[in-house]
Write a structure and sequence with these properties.
The chain is globular and about 50 Å long. The protein is α+β, with helices and mostly antiparallel strands. The chain is built from 5 helices and 16 strands. The structure holds zinc ion. Zinc ion binds next to strand 1 and strand 13.
Length: 310
Amino acid sequence: MNEILGLHHVTAIAGDARENLAFYTRTLGMRLVKRSVNQDSPGTYHLFYADAVAHPGTDLTFFPWPEMAPAKAGVGLTMEVSLAIPGGSLEFWIERLESSGVKTGTLEERRGERCLPFADPHGLPLVLAETADAREFVAWDKSPIAAKKQIMGLHSVRLWERSLDDTSAFLTKVLGFEDLGADGEWHRFGVHGGGSGKFLELRELPETARGAWGTGGVHHIAWRVADLDAELAVRERIGAARRRPTDVIDRFWFKSVYFLEPGGALFEIATDGPGFTVDEKLESLGEKLVLPPWLEPSRAQIEAALPQLK
Ligand code: ZN
């Protein structure tokens, strides 16, 4: 049961696509590694931000849906996304965010790691977490942020759940997570010993209403597996646990299976390969609108309906 390797990507819902692009590439200095469309709703962009080479586990992706209502906080939703930054870089980041007009929250220490909460322009709750854990990361030389201070990818996610027991049993018995214990109101679960990019935290809120998707909210979280065989093995256990996984869906850059965990949050299993360089050169990732082959015949209509991004 060791197939899951850690976070693969997190997908959230943004407001205006241009504001989203400016914030993640300029203010946070991440690389736009894929400019595509929502494969189920091709009138909407799907924008992917990651490290220089788009390692699985560094990706934060967005569907900009400005017409949608704001997300409603509640159980069965991912309520926060943490991004890994190098140890000692937090003062730089506080200064950078504040000088960019981003309101920052109160510094926290979580299990020995300094963490800074803030929100993106559309309200997505983010945290920068200083970590010394080993990670797969390549700095992007065109980032406005110096290589030694750049965001290194996804650190963890936090979910609100009505029942800790239900999701906990599913994580440990079906997905192969280890229970890493509680710290205050947050209960941590990890794969392969936990560490940066390899854990999530749950908070049990039995009296709280169900949350709802919207701008500034997380749509789903995806977990890495090495290949299709590993994905099929996990999928089989998810099916046996009656969580009704989808068939394997070819997302072109990876192969995906979706399902709802027992608390109602949307999870995905995604393969590491073939990766974002399958249809673009590494140097020019993200520069052009990329469509999966089955949407190419509709390129003209799709491009005409999308806002221009510079
Ligand atoms: Zn996904």
